[in-house]
Structure formats: structure tokens, C-alpha cells
Design goal:
The chain is an all-alpha fold. It has 18 helices and two strands. This is MFS transporter.
Length: 490
């Protein structure tokens, strides 16, 4: 297999067979699309499964605690990118970790579908979190290997990759929501498992098309330290089990633990990379330049990811979901954003390609994305405090359009710039750092949702939106300094 990939590497990078991009992009596009189908399909019904009454097929949890669990789970997904990236960089390479992670994800969805009550939630969410973390960091890294460093198609390629993510994100909540509302929650979870199975089979047939670099282990762990690494992993599992058994970690405070762990992990990662003797002065400066982008990303995701917490509750309680006499499932609201992504991702890719070197720099794109996300939150204020069915569906569609514009300015651009700023020996782990910003923002979104209520909506949306706008303006003002630190990367 190694020889096959080595001989195919020039073709993998130089062909234009997939909408002008390398044909190998289609295989990674496919597995990521089906993974997102299963991920967002499950997440579309997860919160209401936790807080709906037992009579309605749910588990009957308080809404605030359920929102905290969803935020903690979402943060755990992106936090586990550390483990997936470390295994890729030190043991197996990105391509193999991607493949095995897809298997773990499928097992997690099966657990949610087949195991009853909180047992299924616990086992299923842990497996999906670890599997998705491994797949996400490494899928992004594999996409990066398809392009030479100076290939002008890179940003457009990542935008197409992002289109695959959102095709899955659109179809998942639509279909799982239909099954949940007609047959029950476990049928919806089962469909998520089936989607991941399809993605895994599709990817298996296309693995040989990937360039040799996708399977390289850039910083191999010495054989003598493998046993120590396994021991540390086992010890970590034991510590978590003890914390849960003694009641120090509970469903109510889980999100706080995830926030704390993510902050510690991010600080440690930056310290390890910046203090490494294996990176050059230019690489070190670029990592420092990534720090303001990291902070802006955290702010963005702490608002954006409330689609799965606050917006779900808002849609269940206050949104008029009546469509010509038929009540639309709650989960369908989460398919609105992917529709706009599908429509606009090609537009943004074309804009960046057309502008070429004249396009806004990455710090300016991040600043705009963060500030526009703040504006989206302010748009909730005219509808705040309303009763049942008081918010028109068209209003939420408009607000989610603004969400989408903000997302396209930051998320695919963040994936792309991270691969360009990454030091050679920390390539996948630098991608994991970007996902750590998503982890921290997602976990914070769950924590913030615990303070949300219909009575405090004006203050809630106003304060959070205002903070994001201020942070965006600050990054815009400091963008030239950040660019200097990025040393030639725009």
C-alpha cells in the first residue's frame, strides 16, 4: 500500500478531476459528509431526547442540565481532537486514525440506538466524542496533504470540503427528525449509525488514492516510550472513573470540567509547541500569530454553537413551526444553516479565487466573522420575551443567514490558515489546536445556555452579541500586527 501511494502522489496533487480539485478530495469529502450526517442528525434530536418527558420518549432531565450535557459533549468532541492528533503524529499517521475513528463513531451511534436510557447516552456519547475528535482533526490534515504549500486552490478546496460537511449537516437533522417524530428517538439514532456505515464503506474503497504523505507519522514515538503512553492513557481513564464514582463529576457540572480541561490543554499545547527546539524562529512567530485568531475563534464558537442549546430550546418553545397546518420537527431548524452553507460556500470559494492576492487577510476575515456573529445575536432582541409560537419562522431563517455569513468568514478560513501556520513537526497537532478553540467555545456555549431563559432574553442576547462585536473590532484594529507575526502567511 505504501508503494501504491508513493507512485500516486504526483497525480493526487496535480490532477483537477473533482471540480478543479484533486480527485482524492472526493473520498475525504465523502467520509466527512457522512460523519457530519450522523453527527448532526444525532445532535439534532439529542437535547430534546434529554429533556422531553418519559411519556414523550425522552429522559425527563431539567432543560438547563440537558443543555449543559450537550455543550459538554460538543466540547468533548473537539477536545478529543488532541488525542486523535497525537496518535496520528506519533503512532499511526492521519489516514489510519481517520479510518479507525469512523468505526468508533459508528459504534457510538449504535449504542445510542440500542442501549436503553442513560446507559445508551453515556456509552454512545463517549464513543462518538472520541471517534469524531479523531476523525475531524485528521480529515482536515489529510485534505491539507492534497495540496502543495503554494497551491492557489487550497482555500477553494477547503471550501468544497466544507460543502461536504454541510451536505451531511443538512440531511442529518431532516431525516433523523422525521424518524424521531414518527417512530421514536432510537430510530433516529439508528439512522445516524447507518449514515456513518455508508461513509465508512465509501472511504474504504478510496483510501488508495490518497498521497503517501497522508499516512506519514511525522514525529514517531520511540518504541521505549509506547508503554509509558499507554500507561498514562489508562491512568487518565481511571482518574475520570474515580471522579465520577465519588460524585465530583456530575451531569450538572460536567460542562465546567470540560471547559477547565480545554483551557489547560490549550495552554499546554501552545507551551509545548512554542518551547520545542525542533521548530524554527519563523515557525515560532507564526504560532504566536495564531493566538489572537484562537481567541476570536473561541468567541465565535461560544455563540455559534448555541444552535444546539439555546436555539433548540427557543425553537421548541417560541418558534412558530406551523407550515401550512403541519408542525415542522424541532430538529429541522438545524438544517437551515447548512442550506445556506451549501448555497454560499461555492460563492465564497469563487470570491476568494477571483480576488487571489487581493482578498482580505486571515485576521480581517476572523474579525469580520466574530463581529457579524455578534450582530446575529442582536437580531434576536426584537423577538425576545415572546410567548409560544411568537417568533416567525422567516425571522429565524434570516438570523441563521447571518450566522452562515459569519461562519464562512471564519471556519473554513481557520482550517486553511492552521495548516499553513503549522510547524512541520506539529502539523496535525496544530490543527487540533484550532479544534481546541472550537471545543472551548462549544463547552462555553453549553455553560452559557444554563443562564438562558425567556425572561432574560434581551440581556442574554444583547450582552453576548456586544462582547463578540467588541472582540471583532479589536482584532481588526490589530490585524497588521498579527500579520507581521504570521511571517508571510496571509
Amino acid at each position: 500500500m505504501g508503494d501504491q501511494r508513493a507512485t500516486s502522489e504526483p497525480d493526487a496533487r496535480n490532477d483537477h478531476g473533482f471540480f478543479g480539485q484533486p480527485r482524492a478530495l472526493a473520498n475525504v469529502f465523502g467520509v466527512e459528509m457522512w460523519e457530519r450526517f450522523s453527527f448532526y442528525g444525532m445532535q439534532g434530536i439529542l437535547l430534546i431526547y434529554l429533556y422531553y418527558s418519559v411519556a414523550d420518549g425522552g429522559l425527563g432531565m431539567p432543560e438547563a442540565a440537558a443543555a449543559g450535557i450537550v455543550g459538554a459533549y460538543g466540547g468533548g468532541v473537539y477536545l478529543s481532537t488532541i488525542l486523535g492528533a497525537w496518535i496520528a503524529d506519533r503512532l499511526l499517521g492521519s489516514e489510519r486514525v481517520l479510518f479507525f475513528s469512523a468505526i468508533v463513531i459508528m459504534a457510538g451511534h449504535l449504542a445510542l440506538a440500542l442501549l436503553p436510557g442513560f446507559l445508551g447516552v453515556g456509552v454512545g456519547l463517549v464513543l462518538v466524542a472520541f471517534g469524531s475528535g479523531g476523525l475531524k482533526a485528521n480529515a482536515t490534515s489529510v485534505v491539507g496533504t492534497l495540496y502543495a504549500p503554494d497551491d492557489v486552490r487550497r482555500d477553494a478546496g477547503f471550501s468544497l470540503f466544507y460543502l461536504g460537511i454541510n451536505l451531511g449537516g443538512f440531511l442529518g437533522p431532516i431525516l433523523t427528525g422525521l424518524l424521531q417524530s414518527t417512530l421514536g428517538f432510537h430510530w433516529g439514532f439508528g439512522l445516524a449509525a447507518l449514515g456513518m456505515a455508508i461513509g465508512l464503506v465509501q472511504y474504504s474503497f478510496g483510501r488508495k488514492r490518497l498521497p503517501a504523505e497522508a499516512s506519514v507519522v511525522p514525529n514517531p514515538l520511540p518504541r521505549g516510550r509506547i508503554g509509558l503512553a499507554i500507561g498514562v492513557g489508562v491512568a487518565g481513564v481511571v482518574v475520570i472513573a474515580v471522579l465520577v464514582a465519588t460524585g465530583l463529576i456530575t451531569a450538572e457540572n460536567l460542562v465546567v470540567w470540560v471547559i477547565g480541561a480545554t483551557i489547560v490543554a490549550a495552554i499546554a499545547y501552545f507551551a509545548v509547541i512554542l518551547s520545542s527546539r525542533r521548530i524554527t524562529a519563523v515557525e515560532r512567530s507564526r504560532v504566536v500569530g495564531f493566538i489572537p485568531l484562537f481567541v476570536a475563534s473561541v468567541a465565535f464558537w461560544s455563540l455559534y454553537q448555541q444552535q444546539f442549546t439555546v436555539l433548540t430550546i427557543y425553537s421548541d418553545k417560541q418558534l412558530d413551526r406551523d407550515v401550512f397546518g403541519w408542525e415542522m420537527p424541532v430538529s429541522w431548524v438545524q438544517s437551515i444553516n447548512p442550506i445556506f452553507i451549501i448555497i454560499l460556500s461555492g460563492v465564497f470559494a469563487a470570491i476568494w479565487t477571483k480576488l487571489g492576492a487581493r482578498q482580505p487577510s486571515t485576521p480581517v476575515k476572523f474579525a469580520l466573522g466574530t463581529a457579524i456573529m455578534g450582530v446575529a445575536f442582536l437580531l434576536f432582541i426584537p423577538f425576545a420575551g415572546g410567548g409560544p409560537n411568537s417568533t416567525p419562522l422567516l425571522a429565524i431563517v434570516g438570523i441563521l443567514f447571518v450566522f452562515t455569513v459569519a461562519e464562512l468568514l471564519l471556519s473554513p478560513v481557520g482550517l486553511s490558515v492552521t495548516t499553513k501556520l503549522a510547524p512541520e513537526v506539529f502539523h496535525t497537532q496544530m490543527v487540533a489546536l484550532f479544534f481546541l478553540s472550537v471545543a472551548l467555545g462549544t463547552a462555553i456555549s453549553g455553560r452559557l445556555a444554563e443562564f438562558y431563559s425567556a425572561a432574560t432574553e434581551v440581556a442574554y442576547f444583547g450582552v453576548l452579541g456586544g462582547i463578540a462585536i467588541v472582540l471583532g473590532l479589536a482584532l481588526a484594529l490589530g490585524s497588521r500586527g498579527v500579520l507581521r507575526l504570521m511571517r508571510g502567511v496571509r
